[in-house]
Amino acid sequence: MSKGLQKVKGAVFGRGMLRAIVSIVVFLVLWELGSRSKQWVGFVMPWVGQVPAPTAVLAAWVELVGDAGYWQSWYMSFFRVLGGFLSAMAIGIPFGLAMAVSRNFKGVAFPVFEVLRPIPPLAWVPASIIFWPTQELSITFVTFLGAFYTVVINVLGGARSIDVRYYQAAQAMGASDWDIFRRIILPGTLPSIVVGAAVGMGITWEVVVAAEMISGGGSQSGGSGGGGLGFFIWNSYVGGSYEQIVVGMISIGIAGYICSEVLRKFGGIFTPWLRLR
Amino acid sequence: MAALDNQVPSAVKARADAGEIQVTNVSRSYGVARFAKDVVRDCSFTIERHKLTVMIGPSGCGKTTLIRMLAGFEKPNAGSITLDGKPVTGPNKDRLVVFQETALFPWMTTYENIMYGPRARGEDSQHARDQAKFLLDKVGLTGFRDKYPPQLSGGMQRRAELARAMINNPVVMILDEPFRGLDAMSKELMWEYYAGLYEEFRRTNFFVTTDIDEAIFLADRLLIMSNIPTRVRAVIEVDLPRPRRLADIFDSERANEVKIQALSLLHEEAMKSFTGGSKAAADFVEAYSKRMGKAKAGA
């Protein structure tokens, strides 16, 4: 058997996988017992008793798989998360780096940044609905804010924590400022950028869902699924379909997981020296 | 050995007419007015051309401050530092520092680290690549060319760092406790190894340490520093033959004499800071008494 295949076999049938399966199965069984407690033992378990059982959720999900609106919700939320996240990276990384290398720029930009930073992104929802011409842009903007501050703070912190001896060594060996920026500051900050991106991505999902709920699902709101997963949940709640609420919640969990996995892969490619040993 | 010498690319060899540092009446203090603390006061010495000068002194005596001034990272408050008659004004590839613990760039492979200097100056030529290859071989890291620093052992990291400095062909190499933190075994291996490198290239080397055995094994000249504020307390010419091997040196009567002489001077200095309440000095005095016992039993 080839080494790669053995590795796959190890991952699928290994002890770690077994534990994961046991954990999920136990969770599902307890959930099922809890939510069916009324019909089985005649006693409504508090909290869990109100929640639809996993089997019911699964049935609802199977129905939804064929529904274009459901997938449209996925698409819309991904689209907004990606838009907000990428613009936060595109603006936040240069902004953070500029503050790290220029005392003047930091002196001017940092106070404003620090005043705006504690404002929760969701507090921006009404203002951004006013600012931006379309619902779509307002949601993306709020999503952007969710990731932006984290990215900037991580870039700034990362650049400032680079060992001063690296600068001294580079300078002594005749490096220009540009070379020090390109080959010391940039790679030295990369691990923090990756961390900032991962944390930022998590916040983006939190924010996008809430923003979709509040703003009523964006420009194409309604049953068609243009509102994204957040609006999908809200809509299910309004429509009284509790199974679908849970489907929506789990969908967000899966979507967030996919995003962080992809990000981790990317981070690993950009920082090969951290994947050692 | 002769065959190897022929392969030494010319630029890696020491320049015949350069490499003497003159430190004249240098002072440096930190803080202001009432809170000012003199770290170096009226300190003068010469780092002789093509010799291996070792500076040893009690911990916290201001050796690192001196190094920072020699490298040009800091300026003295008074006095002058000149290299071959020209004043030192800032960092330059003429005077390269190998730092305490490793300062290899973790995001570059061994080879990229060594090539940093040439590339930073826009000299990524075939000549530079040949030199890098030669030096990789010299420091025994050819097989680790594409590894990142965390994949190297402590000793390998120090050797990679030596190569990274040497490719720039500095007039003076300054080493700030480079083998600190290595285990006893690798440390002794590194001493022989480093002595061998020095003996081959005969570039001016300035080596700072707190380890008396290391100092005597490596040094042509030993500068014994006073307690803070730092001055040179004594200069001992260590006239032991080269090439040096650990076994020869520690059996040698002369090495033992030098050691006793150096230790008694260091002891006096340590006592001064001991009475000043320094924990490091207290540790030193304790270690010293043990060592003196050993050295006398050996003599």
Account of the protein in words:
- Chain A has 277 residues and is an all-alpha fold.
- Chain A has 2 domains: 1-51, no CATH class; 54-271, MetI-like (MetI-like fold).
- In chain A, 79% of the residues lie in helices and 0% in strands.
- Chain A contains 12 helices and no strands.
- The longest helix of chain A is centred in the C-terminal third of the chain and has 38 residues, at 177-214.
- Residues 218-223 of chain A have low confidence and may be disordered.
- In chain B, helix 5 runs antiparallel to helix 6 (154-166), helix 8 crosses helix 10 and helix 10 runs antiparallel to helix 11 (279-298).
- Chain B is 42% helix and 20% strand.
- Chain B is of the alpha/beta class and 299 residues long.
Output the structural class of chain B. alpha/beta
The overall pLDDT average of chain A reads 87
Biggest interface, and residues per chain? A-B, 23 and 25 residues
User: Fraction of residues of chain B in helices?
Assistant: 40-55%
In CATH, the architecture of the largest domain in chain A is Orthogonal Bundle
Question: Treating each run of at least 4 consecutive H or I residues as one helix, how many helices of chain A?
Answer: 12
The strand count of chain B comes to 10
- The CATH topology of the largest domain in chain A turns out to be MetI-like fold
Report the mean per-residue pLDDT of chain B as an integer: 84
Secondary-structure element sequence of chain B? HEEEHEEEHHHHEHEHEEHHH
Q: Please tally the helical runs of chain B, counting DSSP H or I stretches of 4 or more residues.
A: 11
- The name CATH uses for the topology of the largest domain in chain B is Rossmann fold
**Integer tally of domains of chain A:** 2
- Please tell me the total number of domains of chain B: 2
Biggest sheet of chain A, open or closed, and with what strands and sense? Answer: none
What is the multimeric organization of the chains shown? Answer: heterodimer
> Main β-sheet of chain B, in a few words?
6 strands, mixed
